[in-house]
Amino acid sequence: MLTMINAKGYAAQTSTTNLAPWNFERREVGPADVQFDILYCGVCHSDLHQIKNEWFPGIFPMVPGHEIVGKVVKVGKDVTKFRAGDLAAVGCLVDSCRTCDNCKEGLEQYCLNGSVQTYNGLSKDGTPTYGGYSNTIVVHQDFVLTVSKKLSLPAVAPLLCAGITTYSPLRYWKVGKGHKLAVLGLGGLGHMAVKFGVAFGAEVTVLSTSAPKEEAAKKLGAHKFVLTSDPKQIKDAKRSFDFILDTVSAPHDLKLYLSLLKTNGTHIMVGISPEPSPVHAFDLMGGRKSLAASGIGGLPETQEMLDYCAEHNIASDIEMIDIKNIHQAYDRMLKGDVRYRFVIDMATL
Ligand SMILES: [Zn+2]
Ligand SMILES: [Zn+2]
Q1: Longest Cα pair distance anywhere in the chain, in angstroms?
Q2: Is 183 within 8 Å of 224 (Cβ atoms)?
Q3: Residue 253: how many CB atoms within 10 A of its CB?
């Protein structure tokens, strides 16, 4: 008989209450499962969107968190990839159908039968999933990633969402040497986009409404900076980029940014604004431009990204917080007052 695992975490009981300590149960470790104790969990803007029901009605109580790293404590008898004591990570997904065309290609994030989100989702047995703002997690080995000891572990956590969300589109569109890449927004996603863009050999420009971000952008390795509130700088940047990676999750004027693309340029959205952004066909037609979007990454690519980061010494710039300060962190995140990702030290739970 299976016995459940007692877990503790921080949960929102409803969409209008703050996160607070909550005890709950995780499933016992099955034959193909890995249990790991969570050491660090990144704070993603989507955590706040979801506990506030800003995208769709959520499943409550909700334990957010999908940038999860920790140490394996137990594995099922069929698990070969992990042993107790290994480092492990889980990102935005904990399951998918594994049989559809997309899953077979390693694009589990686009599972045609619906992948299972790490939190605010339903497992195949109908039980809710609970995320990384907690002390321990049990996940099928196929959805657990290997983490190198080379990088600082807390700085690895944000790679599981902010990292793969920017890595995947840059790889898909083969952004690299000879390309001019603009990164729109310099937050958790944006700062990773700059690091990857530079590592892949592109000329990287940060587009921002905030002048002080210029120094920060250059420090991250960006080659150029355009202050988008300055009409002169915008005028000079017209038709100059091959790609724009748009990480902004607040409403913004796509027409303006499309005008900065060269002929055949592509504007790729990875941030999710709560409101739709209107685009006129003319904004794309004058130069055969494309408007695209990309969501996280599949399991094989997420592992590839983690391995690439270990090899090239790339990780997130983070600020560590105690879990009791999570709402102060959200407030600062909304003001853009973080360089560049908050990570919860789970020892403070
Ligand atoms: Zn995220
Ligand atoms: Zn599938």
Answers
A1: 70
A2: no
A3: 11
Cα 104 to averaged position of ligand 2 atoms, centre (Å)? 7
Contact criterion met (CB below 8 Å) for 134 and 22: no
Task: Give residue-wise pLDDT tens across range 248-283.
Answer: 988 899 999 999 999 999 999 999 888 888 899 999
Q: Ligand 2 (ion): which residues have CB within 5 A?
A: 96-97, 100, 103, 111, 113
pTM of the predicted protein model: 0.96
Residue 120 Cα, ligand 1 centroid: separation in angstroms? 12
Pairing of strands 116-117, 93-95: antiparallel
Nearest ligand, CA 93:
1
Residue 69 above 70 pLDDT? yes
> Distance from the CA of 24 to the center of ligand 2, in angstroms?
29
Through-space distance between the first and last CA atoms of the chain, rounded to whole angstroms: 30
Q: Of 55, 42, 13, 18, which is closest to residue 133 (Cα–Cα)? A: 42
Contact 259, 284 (CB under 8 A): no
The residue-averaged pLDDT of 59-85 equals 97
Distance in angstroms (rounded) separating the CA atoms of residues 349 and 345? 8
